[in-house]
């Protein structure tokens, strides 16, 4: 397959050329047309500067973009290189990084995208432009572009190249979490949790009379001697837990930045980082974890295990911020394999959208052990910027009452709600729920 | 000259060229010479005072070198004027000078002012390597010689011959040639962005 022929390069006069030509023409025209001879010395200056050095330039220039890593974790830096190659000489180049913009809505104008990409360095060494970018937020983002102006050797003509840097996938940094809540009933899979049913584990339950088929090594000889009939030890079965994390992306509120990193933060950032932390903790214990996202359309990932599953989960949430659609129905269309019976369900939400309460009610009706993690840790501030007046205070009071009403409804449903601000470890928020296995509602 | 002396000279020169005050002062000087303030008859008419006032306000702003990329965020008059302010200044200064016949010394001083502005603007907008080629000491001497020669020719009495139309025709031909040379050119073998030609942003 032949390589497509590059577009021809258009050379245009530079600002230096415009300066000199304007001065020359403004001096020559009055001198020739109106006999203003005193303009001739003025015309001589720019004409000499224009003609003394003949500028030369290449006829073909190519910029080859190379981004070795297109996946990273948020907070990491990416390096992109642009190799410039030309068939002949050029005077010099100057380059400028063009950050990505919200191109879908022209009214946003100069507002950058929520990616918060920061340019750390942009340097040209031996025909190679190196761009270093900090990716402070998770998501699939455009890296922007680099505009390169190539001048001729006299600085009189220039041409511009546009090097698109492509996209990057920034995975969320998992929140610090070691805690995994165990359900009352485990699915029938081998794992590392002690289930409250007899099995082949190591946790002792009781001694019972021997029945035909019991293994001889399980005989408890002390009890057998006391009771004068064969007694065997019974142990708990070891099972793997199943969990599903539900991320509510129906509402996303900006939050104060993390004091350590000062990166931008929102309720959705907190939710996704918490979901990643829980997924990491469950996968570390060889459990299975799945994901459901509630945004315009419901996306899901059936529970799975293994390290690769963490990356699958991260990739599922990549485009959450770009989903502006809305489909009714939410969880009613989920297949059973996505929400296995008895799986612990964690729901990360700022509890601002009333359809989330319906989704929680639906999950509780299905009998899942359910925990709601409220990620809205800060009350809204008055947007006017002025001193808060009585209307602001009234609005805040109504907002608090609304939040209390939502929490009351969830309490009536028997769903525990914990608050988590995304800065402290998630373990601390879940600690009150760890003293006993979670039980779902019985029908 | 030792390295430290050379470095301090370079930094002081750079500080001067990046100082807005220096460029504002240069703009005021161009306004004063362009409006012929030294040749005024006193008391001056109000229109001259108005013109001087306008130029003293406008030229210092237009004289600040534009060092950004020649990209317009919007095709509005103020955006265009900001990006091409140095072109506006040179054009405005030359047209102002063309309006009134000056004495020979003033014509030479105007040409020197214009040359100084163009060379100093190049000094701040071109990379050092390119500047060394385009504004070498020999070239600057040639520039001064051409200004002196052209001023001397202009200073000759008008009855001395028909040299002025020839001079104007030569200047016109040179302007046309320069415009054509700027629009079309040939290439030589070298790499883009090779060492020593980097432009600092």
UniProtKB/TrEMBL annotation, chain A:
<feature type="transmembrane region" description="Helical">
    <location>
        <begin position="20"/>
        <end position="38"/>
    </location>
</feature>
<keyword id="KW-0812">Transmembrane</keyword>
<dbReference type="Pfam" id="PF01882">
    <property type="entry name" value="DUF58"/>
</dbReference>
<protein>
    <submittedName>
        <fullName>DUF58 domain-containing protein</fullName>
    </submittedName>
</protein>
<dbReference type="InterPro" id="IPR002881">
    <property type="entry name" value="DUF58"/>
</dbReference>
<keyword id="KW-1133">Transmembrane helix</keyword>
<feature type="domain" description="DUF58">
    <location>
        <begin position="206"/>
        <end position="374"/>
    </location>
</feature>
<keyword id="KW-0472">Membrane</keyword>
Automatic annotation (TrEMBL), chain B:
<feature type="transmembrane region" description="Helical">
    <location>
        <begin position="49"/>
        <end position="67"/>
    </location>
</feature>
<feature type="transmembrane region" description="Helical">
    <location>
        <begin position="162"/>
        <end position="185"/>
    </location>
</feature>
<keyword id="KW-0472">Membrane</keyword>
<feature type="transmembrane region" description="Helical">
    <location>
        <begin position="20"/>
        <end position="37"/>
    </location>
</feature>
<feature type="transmembrane region" description="Helical">
    <location>
        <begin position="104"/>
        <end position="126"/>
    </location>
</feature>
<feature type="transmembrane region" description="Helical">
    <location>
        <begin position="138"/>
        <end position="156"/>
    </location>
</feature>
<keyword id="KW-1133">Transmembrane helix</keyword>
<protein>
    <submittedName>
        <fullName>Uncharacterized protein</fullName>
    </submittedName>
</protein>
<keyword id="KW-0812">Transmembrane</keyword>
């Amino acid at each position: 397959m032949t390589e497509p022929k590059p577009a021809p390069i258009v050379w245009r006069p530079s600002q230096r050329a415009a300066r000199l030509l304007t001065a020359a023409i403004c001096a020559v025209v009055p001198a020739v047309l109106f006999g203003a001879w005193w303009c001739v010395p003025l015309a001589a200056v720019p004409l000499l500067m224009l003609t003394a050095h003949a500028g030369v330039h290449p006829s073909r220039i190519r910029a080859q973009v190379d981004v070795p890593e297109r996946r990273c974790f948020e907070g990491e830096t990416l390096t992109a290189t642009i190799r410039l190659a030309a068939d002949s000489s050029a005077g010099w180049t100057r380059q400028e990084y063009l950050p990505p913009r919200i191109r879908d809505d022209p009214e946003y104008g100069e507002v950058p995208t929520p990616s918060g990409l920061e340019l750390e360095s942009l340097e040209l060494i031996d025909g190679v432009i190196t761009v270093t970018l900090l990716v402070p937020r998770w998501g699939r983002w455009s890296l922007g572009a680099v505009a390169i102006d190539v001048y001729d050797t006299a600085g009189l003509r220039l041409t511009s190249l546009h090097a698109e840097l492509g996209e990057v996938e920034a995975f969320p940094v998992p929140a610090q979490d070691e805690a995994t809540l165990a359900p009352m009933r485990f699915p029938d899979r081998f794992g590392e949790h002690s289930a409250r049913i007899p099995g082949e584990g190591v946790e002792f339950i009781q001694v019972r009379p021997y029945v035909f088929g019991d293994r001889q090594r399980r005989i408890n000889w002390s009890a057998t001697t006391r009771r004068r009939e064969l007694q065997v030890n019974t142990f708990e079965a070891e099972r793997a837990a199943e969990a599903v994390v539900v991320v509510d992306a129906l509402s996303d509120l900006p939050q104060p930045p993390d004091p350590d990193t000062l990166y931008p933060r929102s309720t959705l950032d907190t939710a996704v980082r918490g979901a990643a932390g829980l997924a990491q903790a469950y996968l570390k214990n060889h459990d299975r974890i799945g994901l459901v996202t509630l945004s315009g359309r419901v996306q899901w990932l059936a529970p799975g295990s293994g390290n690769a599953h963490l990356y699958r989960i991260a990739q599922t949430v990549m485009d959450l911020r770009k989903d502006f659609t809305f489909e009714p129905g939410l969880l009613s269309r989920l297949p059973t394999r996505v929400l296995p019976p008895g799986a612990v369900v964690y729901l990360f939400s700022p509890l601002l959208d009333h359809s989330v309460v319906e989704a929680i009610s639906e999950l509780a009706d299905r009998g899942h052990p359910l925990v709601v993690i409220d990620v809205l840790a800060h009350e809204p501030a008055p947007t006017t910027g002025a001193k808060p007046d009585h209307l602001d205070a009234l609005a805040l009071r109504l907002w608090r009452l609304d939040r209390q009403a939502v929490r009351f409804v969830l309490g009536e449903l028997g769903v525990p709600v914990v608050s988590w601000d995304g800065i402290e470890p998630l373990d601390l928020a879940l600690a009150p729920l760890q003293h006993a296995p979670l039980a779902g509602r019985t029908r | 000259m030792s390295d430290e002396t050379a470095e301090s000279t370079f930094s002081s020169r750079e500080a001067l060229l990046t100082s807005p005050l220096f460029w504002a002062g240069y703009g005021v000087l161009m306004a004063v010479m362009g409006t012929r303030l030294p040749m005024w008859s006193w008391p001056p008419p109000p229109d001259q005072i108005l013109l001087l006032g306008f130029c003293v306000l406008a030229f210092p702003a237009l004289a600040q070198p534009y060092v950004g990329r020649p990209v317009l965020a919007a095709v509005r008059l103020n955006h265009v004027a900001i990006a091409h302010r140095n072109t506006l200044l040179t054009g405005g200064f030359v047209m102002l000078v063309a309006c009134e016949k000056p004495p020979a010394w003033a014509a030479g001083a105007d040409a020197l002012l214009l040359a100084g502005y163009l060379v100093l603007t190049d000094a701040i907008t071109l990379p050092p390597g390119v500047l060394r080629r385009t504004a070498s000491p020999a070239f600057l001497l040639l520039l001064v010689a051409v200004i002196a020669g052209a001023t001397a020719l202009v200073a000759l009495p008008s009855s001395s011959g028909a040299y002025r139309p020839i001079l104007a025709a030569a200047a016109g031909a040179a302007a046309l040639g320069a415009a054509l040379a700027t629009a079309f050119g040939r290439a030589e073998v070298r790499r883009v962005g090779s060492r020593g030609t980097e432009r600092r942003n």
